[in-house]
Design brief:
The protein is of the alpha+beta class. Helix content is 57%, strand content 14%. The protein contains three helices and two strands, in the order ααββα. The chain has a two-stranded antiparallel ribbon with strand order 1-2. Helix 1 (2-10) packs across helix 3 (43-69).
Length: 70
């Protein structure tokens, strides 16, 4: 669901499977820090990819927490 939402927000016309090559991410277990790096044809498109992934992940986690509380 996250990559489909990212694709929609960015107006991309690529399969979700192909999007997995458009970013990388790491998770530090000690700090809980998630790093997302976008890949694109320009610095602005790479930043848009990374920032949109983060925005969608945050929204998804908030929705999950809200659902868990209810």
């Amino acid at each position: 669901p996250v990559l489909r939402e990212v694709r929609s927000r960015l107006g991309l016309n690529v399969p979700v499977d192909a999007m997995q090559g458009m970013f990388s991410n790491t998770f530090d277990l000690d700090s809980g820090l998630v790093t997302v790096v976008g890949v694109g044809s320009s610095p602005s498109s790479a930043a848009a990819m990374a920032n949109t992934i983060v925005d969608v992940l945050i929204a998804h986690q908030r929705e999950q927490r809200r659902t868990d509380v209810e």
